[in-house]
Amino acid sequence: MDKLLIEGGSRLSGEVAVSGAKNAALPILCAALLTAEPVTFTNVPQLKDIGTLLALLAQMGVKVAREGDSVTLDASGLDNPVAPYEMVKTMRASILVLGPLVARCGEAKVSLPGGCAIGARPVDQHIKGLQAMGADVRVEHGYVHANVPRLKGARLFTDMVTVTGTENLMMAAALADGETVIENAAREPEIVDLANCLVAMGARVSGAGSDVIRIRGVDRLHGATHRIMPDRIETGTYLCAAAATGGSVRLTGTSSSYLDAVIDKLMDAGCEVVSERDAIRLSAPERLNAVSLRTAPYPAFPTDMQAQFMAINCVAQGVAMIRETIFENRFMHAVELQRLGADIRIDGNTAVVQGVERLQGATVMATDLRASASLVVAGLVAEGETVIERIYHLDRGYERLEAKLAALGARVRRLG
Ligand code: EPZ
Questions:
Q1: How deeply is 274 buried, as exposed, middle or buried, from its count of CB atoms within 10 A (0-12, 13-18, 19+)?
Q2: What is the pTM (predicted TM-score) of this model?
């Protein structure tokens, strides 16, 4: 089981390039199922989750060609609309094949993803939407079985804002008979990136980025080339690492336009942030001010940045209140941060963080992707050595993490 060894104390400085967005690439790669023509994607991050999804698509009969950050998928030979439990259990975003398979094949058998460390994460809204579009959907023996000759456009309303729920229903609607309107749609930038890719493939989508998305179904989609947007959570994570260490960095191949809420909080914490056309520069003070936050759907503060901000609040001046409103169990990093000497009290979905002068290095355990990122941020500022165990969680969402951190002056290495 790989571990990461971090020697704390270096101020991060220098420049790194941000990779393509994991949470845009996952739905967009699934969109290739909607057409029998090849689709080419560039700026695809080389991550474990991407590899898992490509293997899932390949066992369905999709031809996968990969060269560096470019991936070409050819679903003309799609002949097995099944996503088996053994593959889905390792990556819950596999549920994103459900909508495209029903739309293209009229049937799908997709394992329920099951919960994960941060919460139960049901997919009832995905199912409700497909049923509203005329699909016969049954959940039996841990699988979602869906059948319909052709989906019909419908007016859909999701009970809560769901990112992959919105994405699944957008892709299903692209080939439906008639118009679909998704109300209470997620507004995340990754939704807009998916919509742009679908439109490039011939779909008729409007309103992406707002809470009402209209999709007028067409009979078929065609091939296209699409560049994946930058990863805003990777960007925010490196900004937090620089902020916590009193550093000064420049992140290229990214944009501040998807991170207003995060940049606002970094500036409240005392950082100077300068946005360039496709780069962001941050310089941090000797010590940050504590900043309180409350997670909520985009454009509010993203839940995927909550753990990283808890880490910077651990060494900031003052007390921060952190409220997590999206997932029911997304504070598991707190007990690990306490092992490093953090002063955190959890009360339901609120964490109260009293900043301390210094953290002390220790051995800690990663529990989920963003929790492990927060342990990296804390390890960079802790005195002495921090060893992070189970860093396969990190490899799911951060491309070449050690190399990028080392390029910024961090003393970090992977222990086999
Ligand atoms: C996406 O997950 C992201 N994953 C998550 O990023 C992110 O944390 C989350 O959106 C929220 O922004 C991908 O895009 C691949 P939701 P998703 O459906 O779509 C409840 C990371 O770190 N819900 O928006 O699964 C759900 O339980 C990952 O990169 C239902 O009850 O999240 C949650 O409480 C972690 N029924 C809330 O809604 C449903 O049918 C929001 O979930 C769907 C969701």
A1: exposed
A2: 0.97
